Amino acid sequence: MELYYLITFLSFVKFCLSNREIITFITPENCSEREYFVPSLMTCKQCNDHQKSSLDRLSCVCEKNSRIVDKVSEFSCEPCPSNLTATLDHLHCLKKTNVTCGLKDIELETEPNGLPLAKTSCIRCSSGTYPSLDRTKCLPCQVANCTCPQISHEWLLDGTLCVFSQNLTLWPDERETHIVEYDVVGLDVESKYLKKHLRALLYKCVKMKHRMSCESLGNLCTVQMYKDERKVNPCRVFKDYRRIPTSSDADRLPLPWIYYGEGDASIVLNRKKITSKYTIRPGSRKSKLQLVAARYNLNGSLIKLSELSPVELQLCPGLWNGIESAFRFGARYFHTCDIPAKQFIGQAPTEPIFYDFYLQYDDSKKNMLYAIPLLVRNIKVGTTYPNKGRDTSQWLLTRRMFLIDLFSGISTKSQGLPTVIQYLKTIKLVVQAQREIENEGNIYPPFMVLEYGQITDDNISSNELCPVTFTVEFYMENDILHYVDMSLGILSGCVFIWSCIHTWSESKRCGRMAIDLWTVGQFAITCCSHFANMIFVVCLLLAIHTLLFYKAQSVVYILLPSQDLEVVVSRYVVIAFLLKIVEIVRLIWKQTTIDIFLVDWEKPRISPNQKQNGIMATQKQTVSIWRSYFVANEWAEIQTKRKISLPLQLLFTILLLKIYGLENWAVAEPEVHLTKVPYRPTSQLLEFGMLVIVFSIVYIVQWITTVAIYERYIKNCIQQFVDICSLANISVFILSADFFGYYIHGRSAHGFSDTDMESLIGQLRREEDNMVRHRGLMPGTENQTFEMTVPSSLKTYYRRVMAPLNNIQSKQISGSSFRIKKVDKTDMVKIGQAYNNMNKFLAAFLDHALKDLDYEIREKTFVEKLLGIEYSDPLDKGVFFIDDGHSFDQVIFYGNECTLVIFDLMMLSFFYVLTENIVLAGIITGFLIKVMSVIRTTFGKRNLAKKTLIDERFLI
Q: CA-CA distance, 25 to 305, in Å (whole number)?
């Protein structure tokens, strides 16, 4: 058993050392005069004795004075004797003569039976023929006059090749042999070219071991998308050669390398044999991949072997500035266009050029070539397309490709125009960098992903536009997706715990201590909110990390993740936005359903004594309601107040990205540019990172300007509202939940505010001179705003007082707006009594005048502030928590700025992902935010009118 494993291991080592996947970069010109070039093996082989290489270095010929000894088994030569000279075909040796033939003569060196003549003689070509260039025969040879036996032989190639019939039994002349299947358009064409050449090429390759014919068969196999189901097919020849060729294959059938082995894709694409290290530093010789292409004619002859220019892979017409940087290491390239179908007929060559690609790199100061495999999406095995899936173990890699095929679709019945045209629809060069630190700058074998399109007569007649795409993608396999999933998994636990705490706090504020359907619903909504933030933050950190390290690195530390991963991140952004919508809907619903009441501290005053009918009398003045209307209007105005201006936010974000050019930082190349780089696509991940960075910078600048400068030294609308409450002698009592809310203490320090202008100015002057008591709820303090938990009995009383109004409102409220229509005297009295009763009750509660209802004032503990909960039990006694001066803004937009700006950013990112246009995304975002603001204002006013018993028509 041990011997078996040893032999297997040694065989594998021998294969690795002898296979032709990695070869030294040489061309036919590199071969010496005694060597010939083997294109399929990309190497020079030594000619035999007395031989030299041909002029094109692609074969061996006998030396000047040598003759061919054996042409069948092994081509060898021997020198002629000194008194003889070799014939032109190097088959015989003749006596040296000085005979000069005429222009219409051919030189005869052998007898008709093949025996050599004693010396060279001349013979005149008959009428209708002429000497060949080498003066060895008269052309053309007419079939009727040729001596090829029709009974035992067959003519091939229009009568230029006579073959013994028994040698063609493997390749019968049947219609199925010449059929080309075009799977994309679902047509079968009997190819005129295959009918004429296929059997001849098969015979010359298999029987005669003619190298060019074998190369031509490889070309035909490529054109037929590597199908070998039929018995007679160009690809059937390669059935036993589906592997990486070795040096021993040079002595066998001279077939080109067309196929990799089945199931070898995973091994081939993950080898670490390319020793060259690449860099992202521009200008360096190692900052660009050097590709080499071996180009072949249709007949199998080698055109040339030289460096591949990206222009050669472009079917799109026109000039391509910057296309030479397509193979720039670490950068992406993308070029697409639509070509009219008729243009393929007019500009494409009749015979295509076939390519074998190699990567040129340096290894110990040697130029090496590494074979680049091809992944052709069109390859069909049975009824499946293995190369369209993601399972690399099922991929079938190949070697040869073409750009346009006009010849195979020419039918035997057509007049010269092809029935079907094949063209390279998509070509994508994929390069994966190795991520190990010790292999920094190394890459795995590049490969090309190809997909061919097909054009029919109908497409040509309608001149249909045919899409063509050329892409280059560099990426580094990493654990980013794993880290994202792991981060989301770990943070999900934190989100779950945090959501439980918030749900418990909300349930406690609503007086729901048991887990019921309402609690489950609140928990689900809270989870949506926190999960949205979590997903968005994880994607944001990934985008910013990639942007900073990709653009700032000087060595190959990170490359852009694959486009599939970027699509996954974009989907996460979409999911985060959709979850965030749930939170915003709940926020608006909660803010437009709060219980709010304006407590009027103003007391009726007695007017001075006046004579009425000669009798002195006192008159009790009523309290004006206009102060309450004024405060209600101010409250309605600040409901959608924000700390920033969203139109300015979007405008400056678009200006910086689009006009100033910061969006070009998201271009998928390591350098930073403010101008558009030709054919460089943007990375979705980098786009997302740049959008968030620019948006955040604009927001921070605007927030600092508003909070630190404008509100501090010019105008603070939230603080002004508190001042207005004190000026109007009205407090605002807000319940955002059954037992939790906010209180704004607006009781005037002067005792009254319903007065004339002169008295009002005097009150303000005395307050500036500190001649009156402080405004705070507690004596000697300035604390006017509080968070509060109220006793359950207070909420019970509130509901009891407001209950009689429900029937009145159902009759008197127009739609859902509180607009008093025709109210009878009884209902008017009920409304007035309800208002007065609630005002007196809340005033007494705030003044500690109720024996069974009371509250205490204290500050929240650190844990209560951190978790947003209250430890106090509101069943018997309320608690007023001293806040920072504006905690009540939690029931308006102003206090939810963080939630709203994240929602704005998510919405902008969402539409940017969908539209890939920042201007359009900004317009849609601005419009929807405005719609949201209008909805909040409208429903907020309606709720304010219902809860404060103020007619909505007075809310201007």
A: 10
